[in-house]
């Protein structure tokens, strides 16, 4: 290995050379330094000497020194300051190359102290006469933003950057677009790029003149635009289409992305729609003639496109035929696409190919090819017979892994076409002995069990498997158990012994719980009610369909918006693999709109996914804020519609609890009549205390951000019976993240029991069963009081409502935010995790009315630091009405007095874990603003 | 957005490392090498992920060219960029090798600095870059007579085919600026790759051709170049011109510097070539080949009485006889056996310069024919001892694949009519036009 420590002698030598008078010698020395740097040696000791070489008119030497600086300035921030003067001077050099070089390098030195000095030169360079300098400066704004975002905003660089979009030089435009796109990603709500028809027009013009790389920036930016109507969408498509014949595949794919997205808006009967479809095929085919690396990436994308719009490539089947010298990863992708494109028209051709592939050398590939034949049979019904005979041909070859794979897929074919091809069973049985893979053995056993009545020696066959029962894998054991039970139900007379043998093997001699459980179930079924057993075990099974291997539609839509990016290669949304806020936004395809039908731009993916991701910005000071907030919301007069004035919630510190909700609510339209308390962006809380009983449509996301801070010592609490209200349901688990299971829900307090109301929707293609739920430890010890009652399997597109009673005696752990609840839901597909937040009001118990005496005594004893005060604005209820409303939500008025026209209400609340909150509410008649002083104590 | 770019030798040495965005540490380099060397067979190596960092790499010149990214960037952009980068460095340094990269590291850093800024690709055009790049290339290979003995660009013998000396094509472009004052040369190569599948019954099942025209230019001041293609050249299925022997392709794409104003009428491509190599035009043709595929194969497979497997192959070259100097580099015929292993092979070949060997690891027989004139026919008989041969084993004999090289020949019939440079170059300028057809995947099923 290399020695990573440069010995002192070498350093000394380099030092001498660096300080030499001869330019050539200096240059060679700097080169040596950089060479050492590249291999990882530490040459930072030479920093001052290298910086000394900076002031030179030799551009080559200057570049080398700058290269060194970029690498070491960060580790030597104090010394980096020494270079600043030269930088600033270079930024005014008559040579544009040097100006650009200086501004580029300065941006790469990520030292805070330097950024201050960068502003002035950068400002000048952004307005430089030379486009090379301007384009470098544009990128430098993005660099600076990455180091110090605030500085960029304060200095007004963003506006200058926006101006550069109209620059005369396309390279400058492209870099400005790239820089703005990146900055905009960290400010999701800002309208930095300000895409409108005029600016789009400018971008499209620049598109024609840019370098290929600039075209990519611009196309990617265009893809984020939402056209107003189909006409605009068509005109953009028309101007983007020429990019499809570009030699650079990245340009082509970015263009494909724009077209796929905007096509969504075009009416399908439009002539242009057909033309566009035709134009998309050739460039995609061309990609397959590139290097294998590009081919692979292209195939992953084509796989998505074919799932979304199979018509584009339906005539191009042949290009996906495998070449013998393709790398294996390309072959497998091609195979997948072939199946997706298979149809009645081309099935003969496809099958002939697949059969050829089954004789190839690569075992993995051969297996996939055999499997593909089975998938074709399931997909193209008319060809099933042909597929089966092809599989039989393959079984005849007796090649071990081919036979096993063929048996596995024939099982699937039986699942799709029951009672149709059992004539082949005899052939399958011949190969029984050669099966050594669990999957194939299990498949074979399943077939024997399923068709036991038609196989004369089914009992012998199954018995032969039973001999080595303990050595089999679980998969085979389970299959064998079921198959023998099936056999017994079909031929009860001869097989009694066999079934007893297997039941005892499964229940007594096995330590696998799944197997044991299944054994017991069968045993009890058989012994109590054989007729019922027959109905259960021999029940008709749902048919399988080819869609099982398709990507979920919601995920597919998102992936289509990410064509040409890593997401399209991984087939995962970017949020799954990109850290931080970047890429969290979910993109959606635009909705189809008629021309002129709507002037509003469809919300392309800025809203979804925002909920629950942002947490409250500040620490919650005290619980009183919560109370005031609730009061305010509750007592406010009904507002007509539209976004509420953001002031009220904010001023009272409603932000604390509701921070997250506020962000997502402000600006999103609300239903016209939504309870009395539609104010302040905390509809959930308002609703929580409102006397209006109805459940409102769940159009809002109002998660409770924040929590109650560190006020509560956590202890076990008692849940007291009380009736309560139900906040609107919000989506907790989007279908995309849970393989098609969507969960929305809310919390309610019914008859003193906290209920978790869930709506489960199956957006997948397959049936979901075996639901179960579990909570992580949480602040108030919430835990399911019973199992999740989902009785019937959830078939695709079905929705069910489930109510889960909760107790508050579960294990306690402080959560951040305090009212956060982490939930795991399991079904037959997988386990999914999500977190949700419950309204604190749910925890207010019914016996929260404190004795007057106790109240008085306690009120005095509360230390001042526990006290806080705030105002509720715009409440037009009088004190009695307010008191009544609050009482409905377990906030009890203990006493009332009137002082100088002010009503003072004293109130108490008790939480499920025994914490008391005392409050004083002052209502001045005629003044819509209430003042609340509140304090909390803890009684154990 | 590219985070880092690095170049590694095949042994994992760091040759070049440049960080553009400061978001990932340089331990990424070692992590990459670890990942790429421990990759299992079925994992696609193109895009790899470790923690938050995504690696995209290509292999060229025996080196790993790697780019990393943290955002959801386009792998197309990155792969295209890496390919361009290798081309650029090849142009600047003359050839791609560990040695040339090591010797020119300062130049490569300089190029990288201009080509990518903060992860955004700026330009990859030599024309633009030559305004900025200061460092002179160090030629890794000194010019010497030794190189003349090297095999030519396409494996063709240099004297025989009047192909330009190979050393000309591996010269750094920048040296023409320097004191060496290289020759004014321009190379135009028409390269086609043919993929064919011929069914067991001798029917052509699939044939397609991918072609490209590449220009490598060593002229410092070439303002405009006109490349004339066959006048009867047509694009698309409907657009047939004139009678009969039209040269037709399905799809065409052009380098963005190509101006096509005379293309529609005269089939002339106009461009101002930058120094270095660029692909001017790419085209494809599917299925509808203008001529018969160059090779046909007749085979019979049977089991003799001694339980041996007999494979009789007769290979015919259907090229016109005037292409008699057809240079066949090698021709491995690969009957693929998926199952059995052979114990021994005996062979009868029709001429002594051919050779054949058994490759048990590929389950194949490799038959090599160094030269194969047009119109000729060769045959071979392979006898294989296969333990436990059954009649079903005959079904397992897979397809036969050929790989070959046809110099001075294009399957589409595309020709360069003329190559004009304007203004007329001062001094001697040399223009070279070369044609070659490679086999991409030429499969004959049994």
Classification by helices and strands of chain A: alpha+beta
Report the radius of gyration of chain A as a whole number of Å.
35 Å
From the helix content, strand content and strand pairing of chain B, which structural class follows? alpha+beta
Supply the CATH class of the largest domain in chain B: Mainly Beta
Most residues in contact, chain pair and counts: A-B, 88 and 89 residues
Domain MHD (chain B): 183-445
Subcellular location (chain B): Early endosome; Golgi apparatus, trans-Golgi network membrane; Membrane, Coated pit
Organism (chain B): Esox lucius (Northern pike)
Pfam family, one (chain B): Adap_comp_sub
Written overview of the protein:
The complex is a heterodimer of chains A (940) and B (446). Chain A contains 37 helices and 13 strands. With 940 residues, chain A is an alpha+beta fold. Among the domains of chain A are: 107 residues; 111 residues, Immunoglobulin-like, CATH 2.60.40; 87 residues, TATA-Binding Protein. In chain A, strands 1-2-3-6-5 form a five-stranded antiparallel sheet, with no helix packed on it. Chain A has a five-stranded antiparallel sheet with strand order 9-13-12-11-10, with helices on both faces. In chain A, α1 packs antiparallel against α2. Chain B is globular. The longest helix of chain B is centred in the N-terminal third of the chain and has 19 residues. With 446 residues, chain B is α+β, with helices and mostly antiparallel strands. Chain B folds into three domains: 129 residues, 2-Layer Sandwich (Beta-Lactamase), CATH 3.30.450; 144 residues, Immunoglobulin-like, CATH 2.60.40.1170; 109 residues, Immunoglobulin-like (Sandwich). Chains A and B meet through α2, α4, α6, α8 and α11 of A and β2, α2, α4, β7 and β8 of B.
Quickly list its features.
heterodimer, A: 940 residues, alpha+beta, Immunoglobulin-like, five-stranded antiparallel β-sheet, B: 446 residues, seven-stranded mixed β-sheet, 25 strands, clathrin binding (chain A), acetylation (chain A), B-adaptin_app_sub_C (chain A)
């Amino acid at each position: 290995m290399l020695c990573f420590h440069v010995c002192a002698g070498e350093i000394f030598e380099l030092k001498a050379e660096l300080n030499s008078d001869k330019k050539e010698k200096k240059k060679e020395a700097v080169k040596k330094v950089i060479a050492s740097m590249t291999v990882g040696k530490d040459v930072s000791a030479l920093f001052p000497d290298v910086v000394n070489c900076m002031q030179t008119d030799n551009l080559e030497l200057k570049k080398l020194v700058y290269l060194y600086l970029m690498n070491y300035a960060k580790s030597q921030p104090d010394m980096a300051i020494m270079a600043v003067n030269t930088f600033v001077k270079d930024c005014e050099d008559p040579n544009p190359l040097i100006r650009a070089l200086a501004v580029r390098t300065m941006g790469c030195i990520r030292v805070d102290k330097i950024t201050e000095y960068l502003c002035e030169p950068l400002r000048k360079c952004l307005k430089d006469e030379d486009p090379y300098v301007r384009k470098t400066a544009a990128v430098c704004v993005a660099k600076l933003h990455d180091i110090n975002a605030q500085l960029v905003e304060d200095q007004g660089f963003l506006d200058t950057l926006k101006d550069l979009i109209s620059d005369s030089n396309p390279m400058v435009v492209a870099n400005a677009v790239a820089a703005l796109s990146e900055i905009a990603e960290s400010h999701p709500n800002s309208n930095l790029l300000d895409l409108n028809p005029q600016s789009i027009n400018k971008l499209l013009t620049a598109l024609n003149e840019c370098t290929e790389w600039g075209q990519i920036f611009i196309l990617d930016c265009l893809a984020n635009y939402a056209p107003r109507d189909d006409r605009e969408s068509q005109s953009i498509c028309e101007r983007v289409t020429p990019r499809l014949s570009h030699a650079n595949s990245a340009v082509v794919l970015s263009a494909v992305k724009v077209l796929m997205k905007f096509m969504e808006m075009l009416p399908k009967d439009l002539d242009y729609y057909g033309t566009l479809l035709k134009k998309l095929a050739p460039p995609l085919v061309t990609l397959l003639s590139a290097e294998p690396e590009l081919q692979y990436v292209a195939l992953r994308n084509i796989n998505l496109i074919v799932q979304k719009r199979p018509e584009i490539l339906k005539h191009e089947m042949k290009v996906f035929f495998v070449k013998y010298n393709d790398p294996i990863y390309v072959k497998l992708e091609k195979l997948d696409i072939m199946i997706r494109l298979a149809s009645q028209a081309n099935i003969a051709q496809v099958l002939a190919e697949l059969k050829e592939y089954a004789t190839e050398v690569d075992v993995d590939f051969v297996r996939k090819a055999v499997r593909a034949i089975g998938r074709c049979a399931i997909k193209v019904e008319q060809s099933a017979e042909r597929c089966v005979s092809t599989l039989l041909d393959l079984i005849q070859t007796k090649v071990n892994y081919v036979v096993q794979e063929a048996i596995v897929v024939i099982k699937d074919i039986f699942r799709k076409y029951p009672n149709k091809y059992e004539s082949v069973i005899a052939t399958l049985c011949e190969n029984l002995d050669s099966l050594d893979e669990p999957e194939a053995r299990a498949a074979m056993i399943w077939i024997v069990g399923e068709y036991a009545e038609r196989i004369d020696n089914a009992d012998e066959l199954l018995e032969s498997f039973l001999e080595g029962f303990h050595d089999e894998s679980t998969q085979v054991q389970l299959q064998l158990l079921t198959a023998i039970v099936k056999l017994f139900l079909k031929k009860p007379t001869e097989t009694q012994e066999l079934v007893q043998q297997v039941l005892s093997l499964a229940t007594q001699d096995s330590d696998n719980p799944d197997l044991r459980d299944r054994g017991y179930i069968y045993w009890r079924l058989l012994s109590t009610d054989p007729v019922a057993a027959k109905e259960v075990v021999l029940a008709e099974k749902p048919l399988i369909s080819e869609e099982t291997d398709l990507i979920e539609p919601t995920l597919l839509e998102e992936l289509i918006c990410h064509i040409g990016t890593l997401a399209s290669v991984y087939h995962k949304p970017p949020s799954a693999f990109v850290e931080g806020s970047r890429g969290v936004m979910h993109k959606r395809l635009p909705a189809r709109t008629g021309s002129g039908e709507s002037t509003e731009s469809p919300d392309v993916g800025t809203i979804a996914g925002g909920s629950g991701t942002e947490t409250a910005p500040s620490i919650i000071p005290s619980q009183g804020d919560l109370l005031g907030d609730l009061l305010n919301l509750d007592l406010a007069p009904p507002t007509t519609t539209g976004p509420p004035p953001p002031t009220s919630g904010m001023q009272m510190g409603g932000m604390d609890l509701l921070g997250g909700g506020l962000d997502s609510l402000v600006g999103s339209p609300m239903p016209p009549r939504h309870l009395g308390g539609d104010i302040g962006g905390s509809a959930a809380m308002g609703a929580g205390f409102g006397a209006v009983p109805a459940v409102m449509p769940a159009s809002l996301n109002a998660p409770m951000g924040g929590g109650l801070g560190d006020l509560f010592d956590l202890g076990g609490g008692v849940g007291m019976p009380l009736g309560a209200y139900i906040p609107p349901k919000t989506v907790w688990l989007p279908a995309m993240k849970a393989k098609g299971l969507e969960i929305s829900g809310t919390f309610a307090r019914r008859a003193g029991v906290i209920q978790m109301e869930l709506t489960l929707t199956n957006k997948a293609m397959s049936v979901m069963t075996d639901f179960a739920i579990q909570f992580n430890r949480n602040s108030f010890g919430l835990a399911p009081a019973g199992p999740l009652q989902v009785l019937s399997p959830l078939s695709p597109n079905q929705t069910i409502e489930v109510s889960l009673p909760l107790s508050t005696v579960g294990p306690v752990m402080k959560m951040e935010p305090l009212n956060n609840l982490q939930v795991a839901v399991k079904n037959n597909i997988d386990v999914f995790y999500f977190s949700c937040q419950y309204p604190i009001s749910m925890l207010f118990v019914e016996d929260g009315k404190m004795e007057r005496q106790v109240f008085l005594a306690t009120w005095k004893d509360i230390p001042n630091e526990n006290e806080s005060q705030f105002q509720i604005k715009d409440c037009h209820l009088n004190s009695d009405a307010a008191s009544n409303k609050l009482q409905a939500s377990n906030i009890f008025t203990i006493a009332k007095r009137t002082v100088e026209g002010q009503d003072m209400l004293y109130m108490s609340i008790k939480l499920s874990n025994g914490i008391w909150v005392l409050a004083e509410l002052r209502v001045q008649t005629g003044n819509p603003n209430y003042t609340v002083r509140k304090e909390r104590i803890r009684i154990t | 957005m590219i985070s880092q770019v690095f170049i590694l030798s095949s042994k994992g040495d760091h040759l070049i490392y440049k960080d553009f965005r400061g978001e990932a540490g340089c331990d990424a380099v070692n992590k990459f090498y670890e990942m790429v060397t421990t990759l299992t067979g079925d994992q696609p190596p193109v895009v790899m992920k470790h923690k938050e960092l995504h690696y995209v790499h290509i292999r060229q010149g025996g080196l790993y060219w790697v780019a990393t990214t943290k955002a959801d960037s386009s792998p197309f952009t990155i792969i295209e960029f890496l390919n361009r980068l290798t081309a650029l460095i090849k142009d600047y340094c003359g050839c791609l090798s560990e040695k040339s990269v090591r010797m020119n590291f300062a130049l490569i850093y300089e190029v990288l600095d201009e080509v990518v800024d903060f992860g955004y690709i700026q330009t990859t055009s030599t024309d633009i870059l030559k305004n900025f790049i200061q460092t002179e290339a160090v030629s890794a290979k000194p010019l010497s007579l030794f190189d003349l003995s090297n095999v030519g660009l396409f494996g063709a013998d240099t004297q025989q085919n009047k192909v330009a000396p190979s050393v000309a094509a591996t010269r750094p472009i920048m040296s023409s600026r320097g004191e060496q004052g290289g020759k004014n040369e321009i190379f135009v190569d028409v390269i086609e790759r043919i993929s064919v599948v011929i069914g067991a019954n001798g029917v052509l099942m699939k044939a397609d051709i991918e072609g490209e025209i590449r220009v490598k230019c060593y002229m410092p001041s070439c303002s405009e170049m006109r490349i004339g293609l066959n006048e009867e050249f047509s694009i698309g299925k409907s657009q047939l011109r004139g009678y009969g022997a039209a040269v037709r392709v399905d799809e065409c794409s052009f380098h963005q510097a190509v101006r096509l104003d005379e293309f529609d009428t005269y089939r002339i491509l106009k461009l101002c070539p930058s120094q270095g190599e660029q692909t001017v035009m790419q085209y494809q043709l599917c299925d509808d080949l203008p001529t018969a595929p160059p090779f046909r194969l007749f085979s019979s497979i049977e089991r003799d009485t001694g339980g041996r497997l007999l494979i009789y192959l007769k290979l015919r070259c259907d090229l016109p006889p005037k292409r008699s100097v057809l240079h066949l580099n090698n021709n491995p015929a690969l009957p693929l056996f998926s199952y059995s292993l052979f114990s021994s092979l005996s062979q009868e070949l029709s001429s002594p310069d051919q050779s054949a060997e058994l490759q048990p690891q590929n389950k194949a027989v490799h038959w090599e024919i160094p030269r194969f004139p047009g119109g000729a026919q060769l045959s071979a008989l392979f006898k294989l001892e296969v333990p436990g041969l059954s009649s079903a084993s005959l079904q397992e004999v897979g397809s036969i694949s050929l790989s070959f090289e046809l110099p001075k020949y294009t399957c589409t019939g595309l020709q360069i009519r003329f190559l004009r440079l304007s203004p007329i170059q001062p001094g001697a300028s040399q223009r070279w036009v070369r044609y070659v057809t490679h086999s991409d995947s030429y499969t004959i099923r049994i």
